[in-house]
Amino acid sequence: MLSVKGLCAGYGALTILKGIDLGIGKGEVVGLVGANGAGKTTLVRTLAGLLPARDGEIRLGGKDITRIPPHLRSGFGLAVVLENRNLFGELTVRENLALAERAGRGRRRVFTLERIVDLFPAVGEKLYVRCDLLSGGQQQQVAIGRALLLQPDIMLMDEPSTGLAPKVVKDILDVLGRLRADGMSIILVEQNIAIASSATSRAYVMAIGRVAHEIGEGDWPRFMADEKLVSAYLGHHQGAAHQ
Ligand SMILES: Nc1ncnc2c1ncn2[C@@H]1O[C@H](COP(=O)(O)OP(=O)(O)OP(=O)(O)O)[C@@H](O)[C@H]1O
């Protein structure tokens, strides 16, 4: 579905991503974890096309999208939910969703407004409310709904749990589980490994702009139990939490 080879990117004179290799198949939910500053958001921005790749290749569904501008990548099946959610605050929920519905028109229609409301009932209750008046959790749900209306094959999500109450996080993870059951591929960037390990079947661990470690299918319990490994890659705080 998505394959990334030797991807390099950075800011000005700084090279942050130093040759990233990763792959994700259809219907997989794969984690991207790593300590603060490891380069996760830089990778998301590069995959989204918001930051140019300096070297390497991004292929989606067999097509090279490395140089495709960000607003055209949804036409290739990629939808991105950025950490700041990027909703139009002065527009209503319905209007934000309508923009995505229009952008997704060229693709096979799997997600409708009804389906989004079924996945996120709270979104249905707020359709005519301006997005800037919603809670963080509601905004996150609208942002995911908007991404789905682009009719993607793969969703890239940057820390959707940040700042949200545990109950809201659980609701969102439940929805990701339902999407995965329907064949959606998801890359979940998540700093909190308790969340990452419960929501993903395998993960890439980033450190200083590289994939430093891979947590394979079924390997989460072993990784979590290894306090040294957790501390080395994710910081002492999380390591201590899993002693
Ligand atoms: N606009 C920018 N200009 C220069 N350097 C940047 C910029 N954005 C990020 N960086 C640097 O790139 C490195 C990787 O940052 P990035 O935000 O990708 O990490 P991260 O893994 O997402 O961390 P976090 O979990 O804290 O968001 C850091 O050293 C950061 O200081």
UniProtKB/TrEMBL annotation:
<dbReference type="InterPro" id="IPR052156">
    <property type="entry name" value="BCAA_Transport_ATP-bd_LivF"/>
</dbReference>
<dbReference type="Pfam" id="PF00005">
    <property type="entry name" value="ABC_tran"/>
</dbReference>
<dbReference type="InterPro" id="IPR003439">
    <property type="entry name" value="ABC_transporter-like_ATP-bd"/>
</dbReference>
<dbReference type="GO" id="GO:0005524">
    <property type="term" value="F:ATP binding"/>
</dbReference>
<keyword id="KW-0547">Nucleotide-binding</keyword>
<comment type="similarity">
    <text>Belongs to the ABC transporter superfamily.</text>
</comment>
<protein>
    <submittedName>
        <fullName>ABC transporter ATP-binding protein</fullName>
    </submittedName>
</protein>
<keyword id="KW-0067">ATP-binding</keyword>
<dbReference type="InterPro" id="IPR003593">
    <property type="entry name" value="AAA+_ATPase"/>
</dbReference>
<dbReference type="InterPro" id="IPR027417">
    <property type="entry name" value="P-loop_NTPase"/>
</dbReference>
<keyword id="KW-0029">Amino-acid transport</keyword>
<keyword id="KW-0813">Transport</keyword>
<feature type="domain" description="ABC transporter">
    <location>
        <begin position="2"/>
        <end position="233"/>
    </location>
</feature>
